[in-house]
Design a protein that fits this description.
With about 260 residues, the protein is mainly β. The protein has a domain of about 80 residues. About 0% of the residues lie in helices and about 30% in strands. The chain has no helices and 18 strands. The strands form seven sheets. Strands 3, 4, 11, 12 and 18 form a five-stranded mixed sheet that branches. The protein has a three-stranded antiparallel sheet with strand order 1-10-2, with no helix packed on it. The protein has a two-stranded antiparallel ribbon with strand order 5-9. It is elongated and about 95 Å long.
Length: about 260
Amino acid sequence: MLACLPGIAVAQDAYPQGTIAFFNLQACPTGWQPAQSTSSAALNGYFLVPFAPPVNPLLLGTTVNSAMGNGEVRTHTHTFSSSIDLSEVKYVGIVGCCNDDTSNDGTMSFSSTTGAADSGMPYVQLLLCQKAQFQRNQNPPIGVPQTVVTFYSTANCPTGWKQTLLTSGRFIVGLPSGSSTPTAAFGGDPLEVGEDRQHTHTFSGSVTIPSTGVGLGSGCCAEHYGAAGGYSFQGTTAGASTGLPYTIVTQCQPCVTDDQDPACQ
């Protein structure tokens, strides 16, 4: 990732045409322009997720979900369904009338949608730019750190660069303070290309059925009324996406002297 300080103009830098990088600026530096998808749509507002080959070249530079707004907290909901089983209660009748607000015994099903909730994903906004000028074809490249990693919306890395495979299918976060493992992977399995990862939540609760008055005519045994009392329910919501937007890219790093990677030969 490139990070340039405000006020520094980058002209004939050594990064190849097509490089996509982040800048701590309000406008792209000289030789760079706002990053665009393969359909010329703006990529600012999207996270970058690199994928290792084989990737359909037509998918590189495409996006998943809608772009983040300025300072947006992206929320999502889940649908759920459950049921409770009302116990049976019987009544022996005397002269009277009027069954008010009673329920039948047996299974009572219900479904609904949860309230909108934040996924809690922390992020920072930086300007995403794409190198538009000055193609440099040297192997290994000159003028860039050997450990830098950059992004491209093409299937192959530029001359003198090789693909970074360890990050494939994962969101990338800056190394936390105190960590000494810059290539460690955490969380779930890597994303498939274009995947909108789903997740679920467990839920539980209870309802209280109040008692009711029952009037019956003379006779015996009115059956199958739902008994008053507390009833518990639990289950798992339907799957839903957090809606986090990302774009599909290739990640590359410079070749080094005598590099054995096939892309560097």
